[in-house]
TrEMBL record:
Lineage, uppermost ranks: Bacteria, Pseudomonadati, Bacteroidota, Flavobacteriia, Flavobacteriales
Name of the protein described by the UniProt record: YicC family protein
Region of interest: Disordered: 1-23
Domain Endoribonuclease YicC-like C-terminal: residue ranges: 176-297
Cofactor(s) annotated in UniProt: a divalent metal cation
NCBIfam families: YicC/YloC family endoribonuclease
GO molecular function: hydrolase activity; RNA endonuclease activity
Entries under Pfam families matching the protein: YicC-like_C, YicC-like_N
Record's keyword terms, sorted: Endonuclease, Hydrolase, Nuclease
Start and end residues of each Endoribonuclease YicC-like N-terminal domain: 1-155
Family the UniProt entry places it in: Belongs to the YicC/YloC family.
Top-rank taxon, per record: Bacteria
Length: 297
């Protein structure tokens, strides 16, 4: 399910030798619909070592969704850039030359690297290891609350589709005995016509018995009462699961497949335009349910 959450924490770097510079750690968690759980992380270098712990935290409490976790450290120095001394810049240049003499492929320092190092490394002066888990818990709790609200919306939509499916099933129910009787009579008429053409080839009593047997078997094959009953039973279970809550996504997936199977069978047996229309309408509603059920844990 979709959701967004964020948490922030500010800290001062004065004790780390960068007087007057403050830092803020921000954490965002975004979730979009996905049938499976897919986690991705965008963390600054200072926090990359914490990715396994964050992954374990999210995996323990999320089962589905494409989830992206972003963290960033922002420095607030009174809207002024650090003013590095010439001596510090010379020192950095000497250190760079030494490193590159041993490691020729080493990347040269950028302007931002030089400013950060010359300012005393405000980011590294703060230990975020104790703050990050707390922020992650806060953001995850907020995300779960957002997803719960989304879940209620999805449940309302599914209950509406269930009501529409029940209405279609109710419309189909009185058509079933009429359909069976119509098809039986039609079969008997065709059979009598065929027997009239082959008069004398078969005993009348035997032909009549065989015709009745064939007509009954045909009526059973086109009887959709069983499909309507099973469909109604599946709807009952889906409604019960939505009321119960919890991790119901996989069970709902299975029940939606069963609904689709019953609607398909009803359509293949339909011998009237009205039943065919009902079958098509059912499949449209079931497909709408299937798309949303894939997002439910």
């Amino acid at each position: 399910m979709t959701g967004y959450a964020s948490a922030q924490h500010g800290a001062s770097a004065e004790d780390g030798g960068a007087s007057g510079r403050n830092s803020r750690l921000g954490l965002e968690i975004r979730s979009v619909n996905s049938r499976f759980l897919d986690l991705s992380f965008r963390l600054p270098d200072e926090l990359r070592a914490h990715e396994p712990a964050l992954r374990a935290l999210l995996t323990a409490r999320l089962k589905r969704g494409k989830v992206e976790v972003r963290a960033a450290i922002d420095n607030d120095d009174g809207n002024s850039l650090p003013d590095p001394s010439t001596a510090m810049l010379q020192r950095l240049a000497m250190l760079q030359d030494t490193v590159q003499s041993w490691l020729p492929d080493a990347r040269s320092l950028s302007v931002s690297d030089a400013l950060r190092l010359a300012s005393g490394g405000a980011n590294s002066a703060i230990d975020w290891s104790s703050v990050l888990p707390t922020l992650a818990e806060q953001a995850l709790t907020e995300l779960l609350e957002a997803r719960a609200r989304e879940g209620k919306r999805l449940a309302t939509m599914l209950l509406d589709r269930i009501a529409q499916l029940r209405k279609l099933a109710a419309d189909a129910t009185p058509l079933v005995p009429q359909l069976v009787e119509q098809q039986r009579l039609r079969f008997m008429e065709r059979w009598k016509e065929a027997m009239a053409l082959a008069e004398g080839a078969v005993a009348p009593e035997a032909a009549q018995d065989r015709a009745l047997t064939e007509a009954t078997a045909f009526a059973i094959r086109i009887d959709v009462a069983e499909e309507v009953t099973r469909l109604d039973s599946h709807l009952d279970e889906i409604q019960s699961l939505l009321k119960k809550g919890g991790e119901i996504g996989k069970r709902l997936d299975f029940l939606i497949q069963e609904l689709h199977r019953e609607a398909n069978t009803l359509g293949s047996k339909s011998a009237t335009l009205e039943l065919t229309r009902i079958s098509v309408d059912m499949k449209v509603l079931i497909e709408q349910m299937r798309e949303q059920v894939q997002n439910i844990e």
